[in-house]
Amino acid sequence: MNSTELLAALQAQQDEAAAQASELRDRMENLSADLTGTEARLTESAIARKVIAELGPTGPEPDPPEQATAYQAILNAFNQHPDQTFRVRELHELLGMPTDDPAVNVTRSASDAPPAKASSPNPREATTRNGLNAL
Q1: b/e 38-50 (16+ beta carbons within 10 angstroms → b)
Q2: Which are the contacts of 107, defined by CB distance < 8 A and separation ≥ 6?
Q3: How many whole angstroms separate alpha carbon 27 and alpha carbon 21?
Q4: CA separation for the pair 122, 30 (Å, rounded)
Q5: CB atoms within 10 A of CB 69
Q6: Cα–Cα distance for residue pair 117/120, rounded to 1 Å
Q7: Segment 79-94, tens digit of pLDDT
Q8: For residue range 7-30, what is the model confidence (pLDDT) as tens digits?
Q9: Going by fewer Cβ within 10 Å, which terminus of the chain is more open, N or C?
Q10: Which H, E and C letters describe 70-130, residue by residue?
Q11: What is the CB-side half-sphere exposure of residue 62 using CA atoms within 13 A?
Q12: How many CB atoms lie within 10 A of CB 82?
């Protein structure tokens, strides 16, 4: 190999190394920009979490919502089964309520009382359409 060929080979290696160095600098610039953006999002997230923690309730967790009353459970059963007619005893069985005579009689008498608030547009409709008033 003569000196001209050697110089040409060295120049090719230098050009290849320069291209690779340029490519690596570009990648480093892109990674640096991505890193800057990610760090900014981390900072914003930490600030948001701190603000929410400061504004949030400091006391104990609130009590869970009250369990539905028996009356509301009955209305819910009627609304879930709009085409079904229930006898009081069947309704008690569906809801897991006692089926002894005194408990059933209380439900019968309560079905004739005006409802406090029903989820049906017509509060009396749920009991009437299911035949509970007829018992």
Answers
A1: eeeeeeeeeeeee
A2: 70, 74, 88, 91, 92, 97
A3: 10
A4: 65
A5: 10
A6: 9
A7: 888 888 878 888 778 8
A8: 999 999 999 999 999 999 999 999
A9: N
A10: HHHHHHHHHHHCCCCCCCHHHHHHHHCCCCCHHHHHHHHHHHHCCCCCCCCCCCCHHHHHC
A11: 5
A12: 11
Tokens 């018992």 correspond to 135
Place of tokens 């009356």: 71
Residue type, 92: H
Residue 35 tokens read as 């890193």
Quote the radius of gyration of the chain (alpha carbons, Å): 38
Total count of residues recorded for the chain: 135
Amino acid letter, residue 69 = T
Cα–Cα distance for residue pair 19/17, rounded to 1 Å: 5
Tokens of 75: 């209305």
